[in-house]
Design a protein that fits this description.
Elements (H helix, E strand, L loop, with lengths): L32 H11 L1 H18 L7 E9 L24 H6 L2 H11 L3 E3 L12 E2 L7 E8 L2 E6 L3 E7 L10 E2 L4 H5 L3 E6 L2 H11 L1 E4 L5 E8 L2 H58 L10 E2 L2 E2 L4 H31 L6 H5 L2 H5 L4 H23 L5 H44 L7 H36 L4 E5 L12 H26 L6 H7 L4 E6 L13 H18 L6 E6 L7 H14 L4 E5 L7 H5 L7 H6 L4 H4 L1 E2 L6 E4 L8 H4 L3 H13 L2 E5 L8 H9 L1 E7 L5 H11 L5 E10 L45
Parallel strand pairs: 14-21, 15-19, 15-20, 16-18, 16-19, 20-21
Antiparallel strand pairs: 1-10, 1-13, 2-8, 3-7, 4-5, 4-8, 5-6, 9-10, 11-12, 17-18
């Protein structure tokens, strides 16, 4: 064969890289992201289990340090004052609704509620040991002198020593005396109680800080339109938490009741002042009338005669004259009183609501409506400011706004309304005086005593009427003050639960296990993402852009009988690879293929030899060339001499016929061993003799398969693949370096090499690879031939070709 000139390379109109066997490659099955995650978790299952065990141990340890939480609930009913007819059915004196529904939540969180509860229950002190709580009954502090911190009380014999951490002595004395006076304590425990306690550790904080801490723990919910306010409070001690919440809602109801009564009490006070003033005016009017009659009893009078049961009436002029004089006198007195108030305001005195309303004209005259409204608004602003100061300081913005609004009322609105009403009184007085002057011309003949007596009688009547009205309203106000009910009441008090509602041991342990499980799963997925080795089919198709020619499972052996596939699975895998290679090759060219891998131990020699055996079993004349002239061992695999081989032929020291070694166990398989090891052997792969050898062998054999060194071993694989024109890349799961493969494939793209695809090796047919397996029940077997009658022997089908059961 050495004398035969090698044929010229077969040319084609299509570039080798564009040929796809005439068909579009079928889409390769891809494992879903979920499947890949499950595979990663399965691979790192021991890490996940270890983290779960550590999490469970940590949860058990945490139960000793995390206190259980008890949650208690209470319900408050809000009495919404929405009466029909716009509130017209209310009594003459009745307190309006104190707050809107949403305002109750702000009041519940105010220090007006929190501070008394904290002080009364001693919540600002926390003993380190619960059994020491009995020592702190009646414990109080002076907030101006209080030094908060961690304290330790040590009792030695009949003496004690109080220290502030870290070991700062603050007080000492005899057991039974008052303890901690220098740091603001008001504490005198019984000597009998301290005799058994050798060391007591406790923490003291300011009541305001304790109030702030409890307010943060207090949660409440109010459904819009509902009258039920639900409160929740949690704490480490069930009994103490329930007592705290009950004291909280009781203090809330007490404060709400107090604020509710303040409005009624204020109105009652004003009416009482007006009633007393009216009583004094009535007494003065009656005394003046009586004194006048005593003085004039002996003097002649012009009284009309009286019929039994009736008094004679005077002329209309007489009646109008005295009515006008009385009205003018009333206007004058009211005007002078109001002018004195206004003058006093100019001197620095404040205009009070009680002083203005004590003047009768202001209460009865419709023209004084603006003044009365201004005074009512001033009173409302003062009440609102007092409420705000209960919860906030003067630096709070709402307090500043309330002060500014009140100052505007006192300094501008009320004085202006008072001046406007005075102007009306002056105009009325002047008009009446003009009328009286005109009427006096008609009454000059009426004696002065008669006029004076009528005036005094009219004053008594007016004063009696005013006093009667004010007396009735004052009585109604007293009744309203006594019968006022709060807008809120306790519907359901808090009850201490028997078991913790949060931070229970099972919940803590389960949370720790869940967190460690999540951490383990995340770590497994992260390690899988950072893994540079090949593991999933999409890494070949998507990352490297290779068509998957087939998947070779892990071959069962002595060490991996459980994980390895059985021979039928392996046979079917190589049959699939053989079919894909045949139909992926250019039919216009001989089938010559170089099989390589990114690095060593990827199983390329196993794939090459078994693929060659599969072609030989199919009846094709197959030539297997061991192109790994550095470490090739195919000669040992098939039990043939390793010399002469490819190196000797390329050197010219051996003929083709000498290096072609038929494999005795497979009639259609011929092997070209690698030959002798030479330092300069890789240089021989760059000579024209390699291309001539491949071309000539492709013409004599149906299939030529070249087993090459790894791509990372040097340029050998590139030279061999360039000679054959086709290359298949072997990727072994868990072994092949994807980064190495991508770098080397970038070099392959610059050479006249057509990459048919990738052969995945060492695959466990589970998870994302489960659809690459084959049904065991469809294994091909040799059916035994039974002896049949002579007339039916011609109907018996010929036995099938032997299977590749001997594939290595």
């Amino acid at each position: 064969m050495a004398d035969v000139a090698p044929p010229a390379p077969i040319q084609s109109n299509l570039p080798s890289g564009d040929w796809n066997g005439g068909l579009e490659p079928e889409p390769q099955p891809k494992g879903s992201s979920l499947g890949r995650y499950l595979a990663a978790i399965k691979r790192f299952r021991w890490l996940v289990l270890l983290l779960m065990a550590l999490g469970a141990a940590g949860g058990v340890a945490a139960t000793r340090f995390i206190e259980p939480a008890y949650e208690v609930q209470a319900t408050i009913l809000l009495e919404q004052g929405n009466s029909v007819n716009g509130g017209q059915d209310r009594g003459p004196v009745r307190a309006e609704e104190l707050l809107q529904a949403s305002g109750w939540q702000d009041l519940l969180r105010s220090y007006a509620i929190a501070d008394p509860v904290v002080t009364n229950l001693g919540l600002f002190i926390t003993p380190k040991v619960d059994r020491d709580s009995i020592l702190f009954r009646g414990f109080q502090v002076e907030q101006q002198r209080l030094r908060p911190g961690d304290y330790t009380l040590r009792v030695t014999g009949n003496r004690y020593r109080l220290t502030l951490e870290p070991e700062v002595g603050v007080d000492s004395g005899v057991v039974g005396d008052s303890i901690g006076r220098t740091v603001g304590f008001q504490w005198q425990p019984a000597a009998a109680a301290l005799s058994a306690a050798r060391e007591v550790a406790f923490n003291v904080q300011t009541p305001r800080e304790a109030s702030r801490a409890i307010i943060k723990k207090l949660s409440m919910s109010l459904t819009p339109g509902s009258s039920f306010l639900f409160l929740n409070l949690s704490g480490p001690n069930a009994q103490r938490t329930a007592a705290t919440l009950n004291a909280w809602v009781e203090q809330f109801v007490a404060v709400a009741t107090l604020y509710k009564k303040q409005n009624v009490v204020q109105v009652a006070g004003i009416l009482e002042g007006q009633r007393e003033y009216a009583a004094q005016e009535l007494a003065a009017a009656e005394a003046a009338l009586e004194g006048f009659r005593v003085r004039t009893v002996t003097e002649p009078s012009e009284r009309q005669t009286v019929q039994p049961g009736l008094e004679m009436t005077n002329s209309p002029v007489f009646e109008n004259y005295f009515r006008d004089r009385i009205a003018a006198e009333s206007y004058r007195r009211d005007r002078e009183s109001l002018e004195r108030l206004l003058k006093g305001y100019g001197g620095g005195a404040a205009i009070t609501r009680e002083a203005v309303l004590s003047i009768p004209a202001v209460n009865a005259d419709p023209a004084a409506d603006n003044l009365r409204r201004a005074l009512d608004e001033q009173s409302t602003r003062e009440l609102e400011l007092r409420r705000l100061r209960e919860s906030y300081t003067d630096e709070y913005q709402r307090v500043k706004d309330a002060q500014a609004a009140l100052a505007a009322l006192k300094d501008i609105t009320v004085p202006r309304a008072l001046e406007a009403y005075l102007t009306q009184l002056r105009l009325r007085e002047q008009a009446l005086l003009a009328t009286i002057e005109q009427s006096s011309k008609d009454l000059r003949s009426i004696p002065t005593r008669t006029i004076e007596e009528q005036r005094l009688k009219r004053q008594v009547e007016v004063a009696a009427q005013v006093y009667g009205n004010l007396n009735m309203k004052a009585a109604e106000a007293k009744l309203a003050e006594a019968s006022t009910v709060p807008d809120v009441r306790i519907l359901d008090p808090a009850v201490a639960p028997l078991s913790p509602t949060r931070n229970t041991a099972p919940v803590i342990i389960a949370a720790a296990i869940g967190a460690s499980l999540a951490l383990g799963l995340a770590l497994a997925i992260l390690l899988d993402q950072l893994d540079k080795r090949f593991r999933y089919p999409e890494q070949a198709t998507d990352d490297l852009g290779l068509y998957v020619l087939g998947v070779v499972p892990v071959i069962a052996g002595k060490r991996n009988k459980r994980r390895g596939a059985q021979p039928p699975q392996v046979v079917e895998a190589f049959r699939t690879v053989r079919m894909n290679v045949r139909y992926a090759a250019d039919p216009a060219r001989p089938l010559a293929l170089t099989i390589t891998s990114p690095g060593p131990n990827d199983g390329k020699s196993l794939i090459s030899s078994n693929l060659a055996l599969s072609f030989a079993e199919a009846g094709l004349r197959t030539l297997l060339i061991d192109g790994d002239i550095r470490r090739g061992e195919l000669a040992d695999t098939f039990g043939v001499p390793s010399r002469p081989g490819l190196v000797e032929y390329l050197e010219g020291t051996a003929l083709i016929v000498e290096v072609l070694t038929p494999v005795a166990s497979h009639a259609n398989l011929t092997l070209v061993p690698s030959g002798v090891r030479r330092r300069r052997a890789p240089e021989l792969l760059a000579t024209p003799r390699l291309s001539q050898l491949i071309t000539q062998m492709a013409a004599e054999f149906d299939v030529v398969i070249v087993d090459s060194p790894p791509l990372g071993a040097g340029f050998d694989a590139f030279a061999l693949a360039t000679a054959t024109g086709n290359m298949a890349l072997v990727l072994r799961a868990g072994v092949s370096d994807r980064k190495m493969a991508a770098a080397k494939m970038a070099t392959v793209d610059t050479l006249p090499i057509r990459v048919m695809g990738a052969i995945l090796n060492g695959i466990t047919l589970t998870g994302v690879y489960q659809y690459y397996s084959y049904y065991q029940e469809y294994e091909s077997i040799d059916e035994p031939t039974e002896r049949l009658p002579r007339n039916r022997r011609d109907e018996v089908a010929q036995p099938a070709l032997p299977g590749a059961g001997d594939v290595a």
